[in-house]
Amino acid sequence: QLQLQESGPRLVKPSETLSLTCTVSGGSISSGGYYWGWIRQPPGKGLEWIGSIYSSGNTYYRPSLQSRVTISVDTSKNKFSLKMTYVTAADTAVYYCVRGGVVIATTYFDFWGQGTLVTVSS
Amino acid sequence: QSVLTQPPSVSGAPGQRVTISCTGSSSSIGAGYDVQWYQQLPGAAPKLLIYGNSNRPSGIPDRFSGSKSGTSASLAITGLQVEDEADYYCQSYDSRLSGSEVFGGGTKLTVL
Hints:
Chain A has strands spanning 3-7, 11-12, 18-25, 35-41, 48-54, 59-61, 69-74, 79-84, 93-102, 107-112, 116-120. Chain A is mostly beta strands. In chain A, strands 2, 4, 5, 6, 9, 10 and 11 form a seven-stranded mixed sheet that branches. Chain A is globular. Chain A starts with a strand and ends with a strand. The mean pLDDT of chain A is 94. Chain B has no helices and nine strands. In chain B, the strands form two sheets. In chain B, strands 1, 3, 4, 7, 8 and 9 form a six-stranded mixed sheet that branches. Chain B has a three-stranded antiparallel sheet with strand order 2-6-5, with no helix packed on it. Chain B is globular, with a radius of gyration of 13 Å. The mean pLDDT of chain B is 95. Classes of the chains: A mainly beta, B mainly beta. The A-B interface holds A 46-49, 52, 60, 62-63, 66, 96, 101, 103-110, 112-115 and B 2, 32-34, 36, 38, 45-48, 51-52, 57, 89, 91-93, 97-106.
Protein backbone atom coordinates (compact mmCIF):
# COMPACT_ATOMS: atom_id res chain seq x y z
CA GLN A 1 0.00 0.00 0.00
CA LEU A 2 1.39 3.37 -1.03
CA GLN A 3 2.06 5.73 1.86
CA LEU A 4 3.06 9.41 1.87
CA GLN A 5 4.52 11.29 4.84
CA GLU A 6 5.19 15.02 5.10
CA SER A 7 8.10 16.41 7.09
CA GLY A 8 9.58 19.84 7.71
CA PRO A 9 9.47 22.84 10.05
CA ARG A 10 6.11 23.51 11.65
CA LEU A 11 6.83 27.19 12.30
CA VAL A 12 8.13 29.62 9.69
CA LYS A 13 8.75 33.34 10.09
CA PRO A 14 7.08 35.85 7.77
CA SER A 15 9.06 36.61 4.59
CA GLU A 16 11.07 33.40 4.99
CA THR A 17 10.90 30.18 2.96
CA LEU A 18 8.63 27.25 3.77
CA SER A 19 10.25 23.90 2.94
CA LEU A 20 8.47 20.54 3.14
CA THR A 21 9.44 17.06 2.01
CA CYS A 22 7.18 14.12 1.22
CA THR A 23 8.60 10.63 1.63
CA VAL A 24 6.90 7.97 -0.47
CA SER A 25 6.91 4.33 0.63
CA GLY A 26 5.27 1.22 -0.76
CA GLY A 27 5.87 2.28 -4.36
CA SER A 28 8.34 4.03 -6.64
CA ILE A 29 7.99 7.73 -7.30
CA SER A 30 9.61 7.22 -10.70
CA SER A 31 6.97 4.78 -11.95
CA GLY A 32 5.29 6.49 -14.84
CA GLY A 33 1.82 7.87 -15.22
CA TYR A 34 1.40 9.76 -11.97
CA TYR A 35 1.68 13.27 -10.63
CA TRP A 36 3.12 14.10 -7.22
CA GLY A 37 1.84 17.28 -5.65
CA TRP A 38 0.86 19.49 -2.77
CA ILE A 39 -2.53 20.66 -1.53
CA ARG A 40 -3.13 22.91 1.47
CA GLN A 41 -6.02 23.67 3.78
CA PRO A 42 -6.06 26.83 5.96
CA PRO A 43 -7.55 26.19 9.41
CA GLY A 44 -11.32 25.85 9.16
CA LYS A 45 -11.32 26.42 5.39
CA GLY A 46 -11.37 24.44 2.14
CA LEU A 47 -8.77 22.74 0.00
CA GLU A 48 -6.39 24.58 -2.33
CA TRP A 49 -4.19 22.92 -4.94
CA ILE A 50 -0.63 24.31 -4.88
CA GLY A 51 1.06 22.42 -7.68
CA SER A 52 2.18 19.09 -9.12
CA ILE A 53 5.19 17.49 -10.77
CA TYR A 54 4.87 14.73 -13.31
CA SER A 55 7.12 11.70 -13.32
CA SER A 56 8.83 13.25 -16.40
CA GLY A 57 9.79 16.29 -14.33
CA ASN A 58 7.26 18.72 -15.80
CA THR A 59 5.79 21.02 -13.18
CA TYR A 60 2.40 22.70 -12.92
CA TYR A 61 1.59 25.42 -10.37
CA ARG A 62 -1.42 27.34 -9.17
CA PRO A 63 -1.18 30.59 -11.14
CA SER A 64 -1.54 32.80 -8.06
CA LEU A 65 1.37 30.99 -6.34
CA GLN A 66 3.59 30.31 -9.33
CA SER A 67 6.08 33.07 -8.58
CA ARG A 68 6.73 31.74 -5.05
CA VAL A 69 6.52 27.97 -5.39
CA THR A 70 8.93 25.26 -6.54
CA ILE A 71 8.22 21.53 -6.52
CA SER A 72 11.05 19.08 -7.15
CA VAL A 73 11.61 15.35 -7.08
CA ASP A 74 14.52 13.25 -5.80
CA THR A 75 13.93 9.83 -7.36
CA SER A 76 17.03 8.34 -5.68
CA LYS A 77 15.45 8.96 -2.26
CA ASN A 78 11.84 8.42 -3.38
CA LYS A 79 10.93 11.89 -2.12
CA PHE A 80 9.53 15.12 -3.49
CA SER A 81 9.63 18.60 -2.02
CA LEU A 82 7.85 21.94 -1.81
CA LYS A 83 9.49 25.31 -1.39
CA MET A 84 7.41 28.45 -0.95
CA THR A 85 9.21 31.78 -0.62
CA TYR A 86 8.20 35.03 1.08
CA VAL A 87 5.49 33.44 3.22
CA THR A 88 2.88 35.45 5.10
CA ALA A 89 0.24 34.58 7.70
CA ALA A 90 -2.08 33.72 4.79
CA ASP A 91 0.13 30.72 4.05
CA THR A 92 -0.66 29.16 7.44
CA ALA A 93 -2.33 25.86 6.63
CA VAL A 94 -2.25 22.10 6.82
CA TYR A 95 -0.11 20.98 3.89
CA TYR A 96 -0.84 17.61 2.29
CA CYS A 97 1.37 15.76 -0.17
CA VAL A 98 -0.57 13.72 -2.69
CA ARG A 99 -0.31 11.32 -5.62
CA GLY A 100 -2.36 12.19 -8.67
CA GLY A 101 -3.71 10.13 -11.54
CA VAL A 102 -5.05 11.58 -14.76
CA VAL A 103 -8.58 11.43 -16.17
CA ILE A 104 -10.02 13.73 -18.86
CA ALA A 105 -7.60 16.67 -18.69
CA THR A 106 -7.71 16.79 -14.93
CA THR A 107 -6.14 14.98 -12.01
CA TYR A 108 -7.60 12.85 -9.26
CA PHE A 109 -5.73 12.65 -5.97
CA ASP A 110 -5.90 9.06 -4.75
CA PHE A 111 -3.23 8.91 -2.04
CA TRP A 112 -2.75 11.59 0.62
CA GLY A 113 -0.27 12.14 3.40
CA GLN A 114 -1.66 12.72 6.88
CA GLY A 115 -0.95 16.43 6.56
CA THR A 116 1.27 18.77 8.52
CA LEU A 117 0.24 22.12 10.02
CA VAL A 118 2.64 24.90 9.11
CA THR A 119 2.21 28.17 10.99
CA VAL A 120 3.66 31.42 9.73
CA SER A 121 4.39 33.67 12.67
CA SER A 122 7.21 35.70 14.13
CA GLN B 1 -14.57 32.49 -3.20
CA SER B 2 -14.27 29.06 -4.81
CA VAL B 3 -14.41 28.48 -8.57
CA LEU B 4 -16.72 25.50 -7.94
CA THR B 5 -19.83 26.25 -5.86
CA GLN B 6 -21.19 23.79 -3.30
CA PRO B 7 -23.94 24.23 -0.70
CA PRO B 8 -22.37 24.89 2.72
CA SER B 9 -24.41 22.17 4.38
CA VAL B 10 -26.84 19.33 3.78
CA SER B 11 -28.49 16.94 6.21
CA GLY B 12 -30.41 13.71 6.26
CA ALA B 13 -31.62 10.96 8.53
CA PRO B 14 -30.03 7.52 8.64
CA GLY B 15 -31.15 5.41 5.69
CA GLN B 16 -32.13 8.40 3.58
CA ARG B 17 -30.64 9.64 0.31
CA VAL B 18 -28.87 12.98 0.01
CA THR B 19 -27.29 14.79 -2.90
CA ILE B 20 -24.56 17.41 -2.95
CA SER B 21 -24.27 19.70 -5.95
CA CYS B 22 -21.16 21.23 -7.48
CA THR B 23 -21.65 24.09 -9.94
CA GLY B 24 -18.87 25.22 -12.23
CA SER B 25 -18.72 27.22 -15.45
CA SER B 26 -17.92 27.01 -19.15
CA SER B 27 -14.21 27.11 -18.32
CA SER B 28 -14.34 24.22 -15.83
CA ILE B 29 -16.96 21.48 -15.66
CA GLY B 30 -18.80 22.84 -18.71
CA ALA B 31 -15.62 22.60 -20.79
CA GLY B 32 -15.65 18.82 -20.38
CA TYR B 33 -13.20 18.43 -17.51
CA ASP B 34 -13.90 15.51 -15.23
CA VAL B 35 -15.09 15.93 -11.64
CA GLN B 36 -13.80 14.19 -8.53
CA TRP B 37 -15.32 13.97 -5.05
CA TYR B 38 -13.55 13.64 -1.68
CA GLN B 39 -14.73 12.87 1.84
CA GLN B 40 -12.94 14.46 4.78
CA LEU B 41 -13.74 13.06 8.21
CA PRO B 42 -12.99 15.31 11.21
CA GLY B 43 -9.25 15.60 11.80
CA ALA B 44 -8.34 13.37 8.85
CA ALA B 45 -6.94 13.82 5.36
CA PRO B 46 -9.42 13.83 2.47
CA LYS B 47 -10.23 10.49 0.83
CA LEU B 48 -11.06 10.02 -2.86
CA LEU B 49 -14.68 8.88 -3.27
CA ILE B 50 -15.39 9.39 -6.98
CA TYR B 51 -13.07 10.07 -9.94
CA GLY B 52 -13.81 10.70 -13.59
CA ASN B 53 -17.34 11.93 -12.74
CA SER B 54 -18.78 8.55 -11.75
CA ASN B 55 -16.03 6.00 -11.02
CA ARG B 56 -15.46 4.58 -7.55
CA PRO B 57 -11.97 3.58 -6.39
CA SER B 58 -11.60 0.11 -4.96
CA GLY B 59 -13.13 -0.12 -1.49
CA ILE B 60 -15.66 2.71 -1.86
CA PRO B 61 -19.18 1.34 -1.32
CA ASP B 62 -21.74 1.68 -4.08
CA ARG B 63 -23.86 3.85 -1.77
CA PHE B 64 -21.74 6.69 -3.18
CA SER B 65 -22.35 7.70 -6.78
CA GLY B 66 -21.44 10.64 -8.98
CA SER B 67 -22.89 12.25 -12.06
CA LYS B 68 -22.21 15.23 -14.29
CA SER B 69 -24.37 17.31 -16.61
CA GLY B 70 -23.54 20.55 -18.34
CA THR B 71 -21.70 22.87 -15.96
CA SER B 72 -22.63 20.91 -12.81
CA ALA B 73 -21.95 17.65 -11.03
CA SER B 74 -23.61 15.83 -8.15
CA LEU B 75 -22.66 13.35 -5.47
CA ALA B 76 -25.42 11.09 -4.20
CA ILE B 77 -25.26 9.10 -0.99
CA THR B 78 -27.92 6.47 -0.40
CA GLY B 79 -28.62 4.49 2.76
CA LEU B 80 -27.14 7.31 4.85
CA GLN B 81 -25.07 6.15 7.84
CA VAL B 82 -23.90 8.03 10.91
CA GLU B 83 -20.28 7.52 9.82
CA ASP B 84 -20.99 9.44 6.59
CA GLU B 85 -21.05 12.68 8.61
CA ALA B 86 -18.11 14.59 7.12
CA ASP B 87 -17.09 17.39 4.78
CA TYR B 88 -17.35 16.66 1.05
CA TYR B 89 -15.41 18.45 -1.68
CA CYS B 90 -15.72 18.43 -5.45
CA GLN B 91 -12.66 19.02 -7.64
CA SER B 92 -12.06 19.67 -11.32
CA TYR B 93 -9.93 21.84 -13.59
CA ASP B 94 -10.39 25.44 -14.68
CA SER B 95 -8.77 26.62 -17.88
CA ARG B 96 -8.80 30.32 -17.06
CA LEU B 97 -5.59 32.17 -16.16
CA SER B 98 -3.16 29.46 -17.30
CA GLY B 99 -5.23 26.69 -15.76
CA SER B 100 -5.46 25.16 -12.34
CA GLU B 101 -6.90 22.24 -10.44
CA VAL B 102 -9.78 23.71 -8.42
CA PHE B 103 -11.90 22.62 -5.46
CA GLY B 104 -15.36 23.50 -4.31
CA GLY B 105 -15.75 25.24 -0.97
CA GLY B 106 -16.92 22.05 0.70
CA THR B 107 -20.25 20.79 2.04
CA LYS B 108 -20.81 19.69 5.63
CA LEU B 109 -23.05 16.61 5.76
CA THR B 110 -24.91 16.17 9.02
CA VAL B 111 -26.62 12.85 9.73
CA LEU B 112 -29.55 13.65 11.99
